[in-house]
Amino acid sequence: MFEVMMYDGGIHRSEELYEAIEDAGGVVLQKTRSAQLLTVTMSIPGEDKERISKICNDIGGVVKHVPLAGTEIAIVGCTLGRHHMPHPICDIAEEVREYGGISVVMGLARGRGKATSQISAKEKAIIEEYDAVVFMLGNFKQCVEAKKTLFEDIDIPVILVCGPQPEGLDDDCEAIVSGVGRKAERMRTPEERKKLEEIGDVIDKVIRDRRAMLEEDPLFVHPAELKQLLEEYEPIDMSLRPAPIVLHLDGLRVKIPYKEHKAYFESLEVYGHKLTDIARISESKIDDSSTIIRIKTRSEVEDEERKA
Amino acid sequence: MEVEVTGSDPYACPAYKTLFETIMNDVGKAILIERAKLVLKPEIPLFIFSVRLVNEPVSKTIFDVASLRQEGNETHLSISDEKYAPEILSQLWKNYGRDNVDQQTRFDLVVTGGDEEKIKDFLVSSGEETKKEIVGALWRSMPEGIKARHNISDGNVITIVATEEIVLPEMVEEGIAIHKSLGGTI
Fold this sequence. Notes:
The complex is a heterodimer of chains A (308) and B (186). Chain A has 308 residues and is of the alpha/beta class. Chain A has helices at 14-24, 49-58, 89-98, 121-127, 141-146, 190-216, 223-230, 234-237, 262-267, 275-278, 298-307, and strands at residues 2-10, 27-34, 37-45, 62-65, 72-77, 102-107, 132-136, 158-162, 175-178, 245-248, 251-254, 269-270, 273-274, 279-283, 291-295. A 5-stranded parallel sheet of chain A has the order 6-5-7-8-9, covered by helices on one side. In chain A, strands 2-3-1-4 form a 4-stranded antiparallel sheet. Chain B starts with a strand and ends in a 5-residue tail after the last helix. The model of chain B has no long low-confidence stretch (mean pLDDT 93). In chain B, a hairpin with a 2-residue loop joins strand 10 and strand 11 (157-163). Chain B has 186 residues and is of the alpha+beta class. Chains A and B meet through helix 5 of A and helix 1 of B.
């Protein structure tokens, strides 16, 4: 059984940690370096957890439990205007990162207003590239209920965060967290920190349910295994973008343009299969500099092979 | 600053009171406001934000915020209200050039070739500008989607009536009633 944990510390002697992960047969899921500080999210066999935790402590870092590791979560506000940003959206995004997930903050172009708010098909398609989305709405119950049109057709789990407890939205989202409305300052009081933890726990539960659902019909290859293969490709290895490969529950976001590297993706072999046979590869809807890989399930691949 | 919020949403009223106070403090306008009344009716939607200022904003010249003394062809200024120092400097630089304005300390300036009579009338703050900033702060505290706005302003009372589509006459009437309740004379 593999366990996910995060090293948070300095860059000094980090090579020892990488070697230990490799020796144990583990995988580095995410590596973020900022000056002399380093965070490494890793997936390692359960029996090696104690040994690797000891190495983390020996080299001067701490080990954190990261339930959202290997996920990318969007936090969406009605707009990017100062009425909706930066608080509390950025506070939630920070909480998601504390839980080990990659968070992305977005604002809709025309999400403000009770009667005039709307979401475009492109915005919806962009949001659906992520593992889950947190919609942050405001203080008025009627407005929150009227704005269900923004998220009712979204095909990924939606967590609604708003001020009052809305009615009649239970079928349109996976979870609702009330008590956080529009704010003009950081959420720093003990009650507010507790509320942020509640949001983190709710996202964690939604992701766990999603993982359990995926386990019923497992993916052909785990995204982390595919990540190891992709990392050997020079343009990805040499990429200067932070986190050139981001793991999703059912695939990856690879930050190289699809059109330019189409031939590579089409020729890549994974366990005797072509990548194109075991995954759906498409250009990211955000821009053309990223590629989205959605891995097919084992049964899907077998079914297609049978038909062929 | 005394803030009174009325509305149909039991969650939004206390939340907006806190929000309004935080935003006004952030933009530094809370000390200028004596009383504020906020009416929140999201069901229409109609939002009326009305404030009574401590004093009616008036224009200020250098004479109001600094003491002046002429010695030969040099004018000595001693700033009494530091808040206006950047605007005083900017006016002097504009009229006499940077080389002729010597800032000896935070409060003391010497203008070579300056004329006390002329300098004392330079405008450092206009009342209209202050009012505009307060209206901006009110807009900032209102919900973003409520874009159709009607401003009522006279003396030291400013009221904004806002809705999502068309500002109807009865909405303006309601705004005027709130405006008058805060001492407005329109």
